[in-house]
Amino acid sequence: QVQLVESGGGLVSAGGSLRLSCAGSGRSFSSYSMGWFRQAPGKEREFVAAINWGSGYTYVADSVKGRFTISRDNAKNTVYLQMHDLKPEDTAVYYCAAALGKARPETEADFGSWGQGTQVTVST
What's the burial of 46, exposed, middle or buried (CB within 10 Å: 0-12/13-18/19+)? Predict the structure, then answer.
C-alpha cells in the first residue's frame, strides 16, 4: 500500500484550467499504475484517467477525452491531472488511486490505495 495525497483543487470558471497533483509515499512508486477518479454528490464514483506503471501508456474516460491529460513523474513520486476547458459537470471530488500489478486498471476494485480527494468546483 502507498499513501497518496491530492492537491490542486479549487474554484474555477467554466472554460478554465486546473492541474491536480497526487504525491505518493512508499517504496517502488514506479511499480504502480496510477489513476484518477471523481465523485459528484449523489453520484457514483467514476473513472477519469489512468497511466500504466511501466510503459507510460495513458487512457482517459470519454467524458474528458481531449480536455484532461494524465502524466507522472516517478522521480518525484507524483502523478498529475491537467484539466483544460473545464465544465460545470466536471465539479466533483477528485481522487487519486494506485494499483499494484495491474497494467490497465479501470475499476475501483483494481486500485488498492486511495487518497482522500480534492474538491474541484467549476462555476458557470
Answer: middle
Beta-bridge partner residues of 35: 50, 97
Cα 35 from Cα 106, distance rounded (Å):
8
Closest by Cα among 11, 24, 38, 22 to 94: 38
- What cell numbers appear for 77 in the block? 513520486
Tens-place pLDDT, residues 18-45: 999 999 997 788 899 999 999 999 999 9
Give the C-alpha separation, 120 to 122, whole Å: 7
Find, among 22, 42, 52, the residue nearest to 92 by Cα: 42
Q: Contact 35/49 with Cβ under 8 angstroms?
A: yes
Angle at 120 between CA 116 and CA 122, to 5 degrees: 165
In the predicted model, is pLDDT for residue 54 greater than 90? no
3-state per-residue secondary structure call for 31-75: HEEEEEEEECCCCCCEEEEEECCCCCCEEECCCCCCCEEEEEEHH
